[in-house]
Amino acid sequence: MVLSPNDKTNVKGVFGKIGGQAEEYGADALERMFITYPQTKTYFPHFDLGKGSAQVKGHGKKVAAALVEAANNIDDIAGALSKLSDLHAQKLRVDPVNFKLLGQCFLVVVATRNPSLLTPEVHASLDKFLCAVGTVLTAKYR
Amino acid sequence: MVHWSAEEKQLIAGVWAKVNVEECGAEALARLLIVYPWTQRFFDNFGNLSSPTAIVGNPKVRAHGKKVLTSFGDAIKNLDSIKVTFSKLSELHCDKLHVDPENFRLLGDILAIVLASHFGRDFTPACQFAWQKLVSVVAHALARKYH
User: Fold this and answer.
1) Domains in chain B, start-ordered, CATH in brackets?
2) Share of chain A above pLDDT 70, in %
3) I need a labelling partner for B18 at 20 to 30 A (CA). Which of A42, B34, B66, B128 fits?
4) B51 interfacial to chain A (CB closer than 8 Å)
5) Nearest C-alpha in A relative to B131
6) ipTM of this complex
7) Which stretches of chain B drop beneath a pLDDT of 50?
8) Which of B144, B137, B135 is nearest to B110 (CA)?
9) In chain B, what residues touch A105 (CB-CB under 8 Å)?
């Protein structure tokens, strides 16, 4: 699956529009993921996952920063996220299926907060982008 | 049998009461065909699906989207007997339509996003949980009679 020039434009557009709120989007997506897909909580036994958790907010910020980094380096996502890819392969070992779940929640967050931004075409591009990020993060698993 | 808490039933019913089935159904199916273009394989006789604009404006897509979401409404009316409700539809999708059940999961995810875009913050995390659970149960019921 390859990101077309249009996809890249669409994705950059989304993150450009979201701007400084990316951290909130990240936190919101994580919160939704833990509630919608409770099995994802198994990766965070060391976290307070209650509502408004500072740890979830902090982690959401990290996740968002990685997505922004990927979007800003969209021609070489693998390069941009190489260290994160190592981390997920060697240490975190989050089952690949979970990246789709977080991706779904991120799309839902964009839809709830900025529905006009998520046209069908942008939806398609963003979904592809999130898939690509997931693929990169699991690329070194085996 | 799936267990639905009172809160989950309320969250589902509350959203459904405000859904324009024709509009949401049309939008969900159009987005499925746009976001996951390989799903167009089931709709060779739908005419022009050559671009997102064509898909969104396609009357057959709209009509079929409405049909699909209306059927979804049957699940909501029969939350405690979804398997039975969709038994014949399951056979149909296997024997006649030959649809890979993965497609039900894809459409379910798209539906959640469409609802999110219509309801904004009212589509709370708890709401999303209930609806993702519902679409998952419907997908499972539709796949149940496959052989």
Assistant:
1) 6-146 (1.10.490.10)
2) 100
3) B34
4) no
5) A36
6) 0.85
7) none
8) B135
9) 128
